[in-house]
Amino acid sequence: MAKQIFINLAVTDLKKSMDFYTALGFTNNPQFSDDTAKCMVWSENISVMLLTHEKFKIFATKPIADTKTNLAGLFSLSMDNVEAVHKLMNDGLKAGGIEPSEMKDYGFMQQRTIEDFDGHTWEIFYMDISKFPQQ
């Protein structure tokens, strides 16, 4: 079996969160979805599990962080070009996401940031490694 990454996020409104991630380009895998969890697929090996707080608590060993006021992690999604970064961001903003800061341009990488309804923070970026500064 190929190595996979499942990012588990506690969400307050499962339907609203599923709609938001669908707008970003994720697709639902019904095999791993029910009334308490939705498996949202980014790529063949990367998925985000949206879990109600009750479901998340089953797996948690600590209290659930309030990601509206505290940063619990930064998740990053690479895109094929800057235009794709802008499209994904625009789709996410239309779906109710929040852009907490302006676009950052590092020369070799352009990055925008979006937060979902629960404050989970995603960095959407395009990187041209050929422009990476030589040391």
Textual characterization of the structure:
The protein has helices at residues 14-23, 53-59, 82-94; strands at 5-11, 27-29, 37-43, 46-52, 74-78, 104-105, 109-115, 121-127. The protein has 135 residues and is of the alpha/beta class. It has a single domain (5-59, 71-131), classed as 2,3-Dihydroxybiphenyl 1,2-Dioxygenase, domain 1 (Roll). Strands 1-4-3-2 form a four-stranded mixed sheet. A hairpin with a 3-residue loop joins β6 and β7. The longest helix is centred in the middle third of the chain and has 13 residues, at 82-94. The mean pLDDT is 96.
Quick structural gist:
The protein is an alpha/beta fold and 135 residues long. It has three helices and eight strands, in the order βαβββαβαβββ. The protein has one domain (5-59, 71-131): Roll (2,3-Dihydroxybiphenyl 1,2-Dioxygenase, domain 1), CATH 3.10.180.
